[in-house]
Amino acid sequence: MPTYVRTLSFSSFRGRFRPEKDDPRVNAALDQLQQYGGRIMDIRVSLGSNSWGGVTASYVIMYEARAPIPL
């Protein structure tokens, strides 16, 4: 089965992320991928600074499915 990638990004201007806001979005994406037959293979998170002095977190979700699953 082919492998696909879903990317989610969150920015924080004060250097703190809000799990109560961000976690449900990540969980919803994972849930939807699985509901449509996707098999989650890996999740990676990377952090970087943005030009406004804040921090950006990017989640890369790798999944297997018969075709890309739109969110």
The number of distinct β-strands equals 3
Task: Kindly report the average pLDDT value.
Answer: 90
Shape: elongated
Briefly, what CATH class?
Alpha Beta
Please give the largest β-sheet: 3 strands, antiparallel
Instruction: Write down the Rg.
Output: 14 Å
Chain oligomer state: single chain
Structural class: alpha+beta
Element string (H = helix, E = strand): EHEE
In the predicted model, the low-confidence regions spanning at least 5 consecutive residues are: none
Report the portion of residues in β strands.
Answer: 35-45%
Total tally of structural domains: 1
Provide an overview of this structure.
24% of the residues lie in helices and 44% in strands. The chain has one helix at residues 19-35; strands at 3-12, 39-49, 55-64. The protein has a single domain (3-64), classed as Cell Cycle, Chain A (2-Layer Sandwich), CATH 3.30.1070. It is elongated, with a radius of gyration of 14 Å. With 71 residues, it is of the alpha+beta class. β2 (39-49) and β3 (55-64) form a beta hairpin.
Gist of the model:
The protein has one domain: Cell Cycle, Chain A (2-Layer Sandwich), CATH 3.30.1070.
Quickly list its features.
single chain, Cell Cycle, Chain A, elongated, alpha+beta, about 70 residues
Secondary structure elements and their pairing?
Layout (H helix, E strand, L loop, with lengths): L2 E10 L6 H17 L3 E11 L5 E10 L7
Antiparallel strand pairs: 1-3, 2-3
